[in-house]
């Protein structure tokens, strides 16, 4: 078996397994040295391969009091032999699955998205690295409006279909709420990333049935446990896990518990920011409820009768609620998808 390894940011090799083991034993290769051999999808640290299992790790030369940032360094990962890195997504593709746009090589699944960004004069590497949550909510909201252009009808149709299925089949929803919720996130992630969103995306979650149901129930159980402690910890836990379904939509092979852990990392220091993003879209509901309550009080005081007063209350609530939800729901979830891309770098995604 021949191996390749990273040396000073460049690819070295091929060399045999025995030679790799000898270099590792001599300390010329470290546990965090990136290596690749046939059958690997991407480069991985040596410590995660059979090379580390067959030889004891060489002693660390870092002093005990060395700062943590000096122990790990960011490097440019060379592409596996015969593969090219997509400038848009950061993924590796076979050369036959890529197209050259100017000086950049783009994976075919990301070609249209990359060209669209070029036409709009926007950034062309948003998927290569996630952000650290520094984008203002106002900018995320503006991005949501821009990316929804031309897709608002499909977004409303998808939202209505989701509500109809999950509410009218409420008894059976326990068996498909996970895939339906994941499908909803699929749709709005495609909207945010300009990847041809379709109403049929709503059912794509069934392709990850076990993962989506596991994530849904595990998240519910963890949140419930925190609510059993106190209301405030329960609310904090709810926001900590808000990105979990975006994560499994983006990483289909990630275990449910790992997705929840990554969501916690992303939302650390960003929970209040996400709450404010939601308030930007749903503040009106509290105002609407206040107006309906005042109208109910006035109607009752005027002697309109209890039934007539309650009818007025619900006419005000639902007469405005349904149109506002149809308008704000797509905007909020598209903004949330942009929020996810803005914070996923905090979990190295």
Question: Would you kindly provide a written description of the structure presented here, covering whatever features stand out?
Answer:
The chain is an alpha+beta fold and about 350 residues long. The chain folds into three domains: about 70 residues, GYF domain (Dna Ligase, domain 1, 2-Layer Sandwich); about 35 residues, no CATH class; about 220 residues, no CATH class. About 55% of the residues lie in helices and about 10% in strands. The chain has 13 helices and eight strands. A hairpin with a 2-residue loop joins strand 1 and strand 2. The longest helix has about 40 residues.
Alpha-carbon distance between the two ends: 31 Å
Strand content: 5-15%
The overall pLDDT, averaged over residues, is 79
Tally the helices: what do you get?
13
Uncertain residue segments: 55-77, 121-126
Order of helices and strands: EEHEEHHEEEEHHHHHHHHHH
Gyration radius (Cα, Å) is: 25 Å
Structural class estimated from helices and strands: alpha+beta
Largest sheet: 4 strands, antiparallel
Number of strands: 8
Summed up, the domain count is 3
**Sheet with the most strands: spatial strand order:** 2-1-3-4
- Helix % is 55-70%
Identify the overall geometry. elongated
Summarize the structure.
With about 350 residues, the chain is of the alpha+beta class.
Q: Which key terms come to mind for this protein?
A:
349 residues; Dna Ligase, domain 1; 4-stranded antiparallel sheet; two-stranded antiparallel sheet; elongated
Topology overview:
Layout: E1 2-7, E2 10-16, H1 17-25, E3 34-37, E4 44-45, H2 50-54, H3 68-71, E5 83-85, E6 92-94, E7 98-101, E8 104-107, H4 111-120, H5 137-148, H6 152-168, H7 177-192, H8 209-229, H9 231-240, H10 244-250, H11 256-267, H12 271-301, H13 306-343
Antiparallel strand pairs: 1-2, 1-3, 3-4, 5-6, 7-8
């Amino acid at each position: 078996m021949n191996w390749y390894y990273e040396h000073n940011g460049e690819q070295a090799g091929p060399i045999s397994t025995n030679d790799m083991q000898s270099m590792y034993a001599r300390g010329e290769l470290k546990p965090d040295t990136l290596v690749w051999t046939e059958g690997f999808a991407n480069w991985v640290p040596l410590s995660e391969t059979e090379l580390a299992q067959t030889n004891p790790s060489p002693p660390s030369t870092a002093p005990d009091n060395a700062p943590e940032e000096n122990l790990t360094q960011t490097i440019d990962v060379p592409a596996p032999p015969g593969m090219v890195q997509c400038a848009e997504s950061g993924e590796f593709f076979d050369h036959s699955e890529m197209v050259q746009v100017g000086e950049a090589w783009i994976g075919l699944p990301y070609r249209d998205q990359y060209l669209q960004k070029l036409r709009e004069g926007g950034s062309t590497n948003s998927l290569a690295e996630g952000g650290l949550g520094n984008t203002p909510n106002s900018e995320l909201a503006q991005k949501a409006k821009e990316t929804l252009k031309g897709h608002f009808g499909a977004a409303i149709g998808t939202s209505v279909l989701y509500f109809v299925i999950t509410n009218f089949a409420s008894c059976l929803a326990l068996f498909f709420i996970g895939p339906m919720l994941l499908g909803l996130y699929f749709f709005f992630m495609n909207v945010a990333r300009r990847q041809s969103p379709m109403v049929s995306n709503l059912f794509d979650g069934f392709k990850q049935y076990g993962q989506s149901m596991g994530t849904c129930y595990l998240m519910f159980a963890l949140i419930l446990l925190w609510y059993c402690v106190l209301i405030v910890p329960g609310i904090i836990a709810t926001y900590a896990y808000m990105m979990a379904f975006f994560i499994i939509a983006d990483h289909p092979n990630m275990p449910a518990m790992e997705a929840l852990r990554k969501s916690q990392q992303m939302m650390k220091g960003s929970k209040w920011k996400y709450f404010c993003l939601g308030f930007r879209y749903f503040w009106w509901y509290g105002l609407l409820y206040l107006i309906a309550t005042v109208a109910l009080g006035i109607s009752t005081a005027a002697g309109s009768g209890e039934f007539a007063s309650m009818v007025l209350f619900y006419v005000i609530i639902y007469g405005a609620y349904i149109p506002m939800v149809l308008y704000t729901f797509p905007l909020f979830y598209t903004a949330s998808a942009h929020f996810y891309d803005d914070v996923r770098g905090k979990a190295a995604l």
